[in-house]
Amino acid sequence: MQMNKVMKSFIIALPVVTMMACSSGPSEEELAAERNRMAQEQAEAEREAQRAEEQRVKAEKAQRMKRQEEMVAQEKEALQNEQTVYFDFDRSSIKPEFQTLLDKHAEFLVKNPDQDVVIQGHTDSRGTPEYNIALGERRAQSVETYLLNAGVSSSQISVVSYGEEKPAVMGSTEYAFAQNRRGVVVYQ
To answer: How many Cβ atoms from other residues are within 10 Å of residue 112's Cβ?
Structure first.
């Protein structure tokens, strides 16, 4: 009877022991391989997140640059609508009412050192061609000097005199003469 109990216990224990032996856990190599796989997946996910962040930063930078270029273009367009300084007869000194206009141009040129201007000097038709070329030159240089004193780089400015060659208004009226005595800031 006791032998019977031992036999029954042995018959019950044998499958349990066999199952326990078969259900052993993963080996150390398998665990290491799984850890490596998970580390590689995590590293790839981090690289992907970093690439996405770099793309986002590049897109924001491009957008900021585009907005800035648009603002520069708008400001430049506004300045091109106010680019003429008028002078008194036979004078090359800048009148006080044009200083604000030139200050705007100077501020824009200082903020945008890649922008260049040509200052054109003009005169009315009175006087000899030689005298008018010289007077147009003095007027253009007067505008140039004002801009240089306001902080604009000399490399951004060039000067040309047309004298009486390119009138803004044709005719021999005082109005035509006044419109032709000018210095014009032309953006390149």
So the answer is: 15
In tens, the pLDDT along 55-79 reads 999 999 999 999 988 988 898 888 8
Residues 183 and 142: beta-carbon distance below 8 Å:
yes
C-beta of residue 106 within 8 angstroms of C-beta of residue 151: yes
Can you tell me the distance from the alpha carbon of 147 to that of 64, in angstroms, rounded to the nearest whole number? 29
- Residue 80 — very low, low, confident or very high, per pLDDT cuts 50/70/90? confident
Burial of 85 (0-12, 13-18, 19+ CB in 10 A): buried
Q: Which residues pair with 158 in a beta bridge?
A: 118
Question: Do 109 and 72 contact (CB within 8 A), yes or no?
Answer: no
When pLDDT is averaged across residues 41-47 and rounded to a whole number, the result is: 92
pTM for this model (two decimals): 0.68
What stretch of H or E contains 183?
strand 182-187
What tokens were used for 25?
């856990």
Q: Are the C-beta atoms of 164 and 123 separated by less than 8 Å? A: yes
